[in-house]
Structure formats: C-alpha cells, structure tokens
Design brief:
3 domains; 5-stranded antiparallel sheet; Transferase(Phosphotransferase), domain 1; kinase; alpha+beta; 17 strands; 14 helices; 16% strand; phosphoprotein; Phosphorylase Kinase, domain 1
C-alpha cells in the first residue's frame, strides 16, 4: 500500500507511482492540494479518485490499469453509491399534496457530501418517515440541514442572495463546519404549485445518478408546502452570464479560459446524452446556468427543466427553456430530443466568443455564404487580449462547430459526443 505519510508532503507538486504493484485506496491524497501532476497507472489501486485538480484533470493514461478505481474522469467507471465511507446516504420521502404521480419516486437515496462522522440513517426509518407530509432530508452529525441552512442564510436574508431566477433565488451559506454551500430556494408563491413541485422533482431525479466533473455537485434538498430548497456545491466565480456582462471580469476571461469552458460544457452534455440511461436533455442550457469555479472550470447547473428520454415514452412536452436559446423546431413539433441541447450549445459558443448573446445573428447563420464571410476577428469579444495564432485557429474550429450545432434541421446537427471528440482533438 501507499504509505499514508505522503499526505504530509504539502509541497509535493509531481507524483509518479506507476507500475509499482501498489494496492489500497488513495483517498488521503485529498489533503495534497498542491499536487499539479500525477501518474498512478498500472497498479492495484481501488476506490474513488481524490477530489483534487491533479486527479480530476488527469488523463486516463495516468489512471488506467487500476481495475478498482472509480470516478468522474472519462474512461473510469462511475463510483457506486455506498452506505459507508466518505459520502453519507440520506433518505428522502415525498407525500401528498404533491399527488400520486410523484409518489412513484417517494423514497430516494441522496448524497450529502460533507466529511461528517456519525451513523447512517437506518433502513427501517424509511417506513417511519412515510407519515411525514414533507420532502425532508435526514440529519447529519446530529443536526438537521434545515436548521443549518436557515441559520447560515439568516433565514434567507437578501444579503446572502447571490443569484435570482424565475424558479427561485440562490443563496451562499457557510455552515458551522466551515463548508460553504449554495442553496436554491423555491419562490414562496410557487412552493405549493404542482408545476413547481414537478420542476423540483425533475431536478432531484436528474441529479441522483449524475456524477461528472463539469456538472455542479448536488448535496441534498428539503421540501414542504411552506418552504423548499436544493443544496449544491458553492462555485466561487458564479455564472458565466455574470462574468460576460461585467467589463473587468470579461477582460479577465481570456481565450484559453473561454475555449476550456466550451470544452467542459460539451463534455458534460455528451455525458448526459450518451452515458446516462435514460439520456437526459437539459432543455435550458444558457450562460446563466453555467457556473465557474476558481479555476474557471465550467459546471452545468439548474436541471428544473430537464427531461429523461425514456424509450417507452413519446417525449412530447410543453415548450420550455429561455428565449434566444430554444431550438427552432420546438415551436412546431414540441418533441424533445438531444438535438435541442445541441442547438442551445451552439448559441452558447457564439455568446462566449462574442462576449454577449448573438441575438439576430443566429437567424442569419444558416446562410452558407454568411458563414464563409464571417471571420473570427469580426465577432471576437474585444475585452481580452487578442488570441495567439494557435488559439485563433482553435477559435476558427470552434466557430465551425457552432455553425453545425445551429443548423435549422435538427437531423443536420452533430451529436454532443461528436462535438466533444472534435473539441478534444
């Protein structure tokens, strides 16, 4: 096994342990925040990979050859839900007045990913919760999350609010443990609505099995008629829309960062469409719903409009999404497919390149003559420094991908898997 004394090497930046016949888990590497590069390939290591950039950003070649490793890195198997260890299972129940249709998903097992000690909720307690008229989360470390959130946000005081939307407001909350979380509180006037309950359920159901580095981490939720909220990992840089709309922040968002954001969103959508079963269509991909961490890594959020594409379902639905991002075919077909997200992604690419929503330019892009005339320099956001020749070539390729994604005919648009591969190359 790897000696645990490694965790004291806080100045360690490069680590190569490949081909050493090492075994055991590597969770203690979570303490080595200074690591920049790792290679642990071809050992007998097992368990989840550490949640530090060096491991999360590692290539599959640096991790392969360890049959027991799992995680959100492309090429590794996802980690199975466990009742023991780093994550603690919380049981949630939902009951009338939300209706019989929602009751089919009454008992859910959710992660609350803080490093807490204490006993897991006993399985027998599921039945005792069935008489509760709320969507509740169990206590962790002897405290209720509800009480923690109310205290940390000063009962959802406006000074803690970091974002507003039609579905709910988002608050920053620092718990007594020191963990910082983001809390999305459903607007009070909507908490009792059937549609609001459906959107809430959509978001919870979509997040139960999702594990991807470019999708915001979901920690838990609370539901009652009077007050409801969802809990996520807090991302320090906020939304892409906020950054693009700010002069100084837009200048700081250089072209390397912008290309990396585009790649991250593409990888997340490819995961939702091609690695989830059934596939998940986000349906509301916008710059407001792309959050950035301290390294400007992109994380897709807000799955309230998400749709699971079940093979035994027609997948017809009401029009949903944000004006300016909605695929044109939804105006007359109302059938949701993965290609709806592909179109929204094309809009997002142009927004990132231009520094603002492309507006009416979108409707003129299907003209092949305009595509040929439209040069990168004509649309580039002028706030960052000009791109280097190599990055300029990348931006040309990215714009071509955007044009493909914005095709009026959904069948002419590429899949997000194809887009992800093109961007990776």
């Amino acid at each position: 096994e790897i000696p645990t004394q490694f965790q004291s090497l806080q100045s360690l930046s490069t680590l190569n342990l490949s081909y050493n016949n090492l075994s055991g888990n590597i969770t203690f590497f979570n303490e080595l925040r200074g690591l920049a590069q790792v290679d642990i390939g071809h050992n007998e290591l097992e368990g989840p990979i550490p949640d530090v950039p060096a491991f999360q950003n590692a290539s599959i070649q640096a991790l392969e050859g360890n049959k027991g490793l799992c995680g959100d890195v492309s090429g590794l198997k996802p980690c199975k839900l466990s009742r023991n260890g780093h994550h603690k299972l919380l049981y949630a129940t939902m009951f009338p007045p939300l209706g019989a249709a929602i009751l089919s998903t009454a008992i859910l097992a959710l992660f609350f990913g803080f490093k807490k000690q204490g006993k897991d909720v006993d399985e027998e307690s599921e039945s005792t919760m069935i008489n509760e008229n709320l969507f509740a989360i169990a206590s962790f470390d002897g405290r209720m999350l509800y009480a923690e959130v109310i205290s940390a946000t000063n009962n959802f005081d406006s000074q803690c609010c970091i974002g507003e939307g039609g579905y709910g407001n988002v608050y920053r909350a620092e718990l007594s443990s020191g963990d910082i979380i983001a809390v999305k509180k459903v607007h009070p006037q909507r908490a009792g609505e059937v549609r609001a309950a459906k959107e809430f359920q959509n978001e919870v159901m979509a997040f139960i099995d999702i594990r991807h580095r470019n999708i915001v981490k979901f920690y838990g939720f609370y539901w009652s008629d009077e007050q409801s909220f969802l809990v996520y990992k807090y991302l320090e840089k906020g939304s892409l829309a906020t950054i693009l709309s700010n002069e100084e922040a837009g200048k700081e968002l250089d072209w390397d960062k912008r290309v990396n954001i585009i790649k991250g969103v593409a990888h997340a959508l490819s995961y939702l469409h091609h690695d989830c079963s059934p596939p998940i269509v986000h349906r509301d991909l916008t710059s407001n719903n792309v959050l950035l961490d301290l390294e400007f890594e992109a994380h897709i959020s807000d799955f309230g409009m998400a749709k699971l594409l079940k093979p035994d379902s027609s997948n017809w639905t009401n029009l949903a999404g944000t004006y300016g991002y909605v695929a044109p075919e939804l105006a007359y077909t109302m059938k949701v497919t993965e290609k709806c997200d592909v179109y929204s992604f094309g809009v997002l690419i142009m927004e990132i390149i231009m520094g603002a929503h492309p507006g009416d330019l979108i409707s003129t892009l299907p003209s092949s003559s305009l595509e040929k005339q439209l040069l990168v320099k004509d649309v580039l956001d002028q706030r960052p420094l000009p791109p280097s020749p190599d990055v300029h070539d990348q931006l040309m390729s990215v714009m071509k991908i955007a044009f493909m994604c914005l095709a009026q005919n959904p069948h002419s648009r590429p899949t997000m898997y194809a887009v992800s591969v093109l961007l990776a190359n």
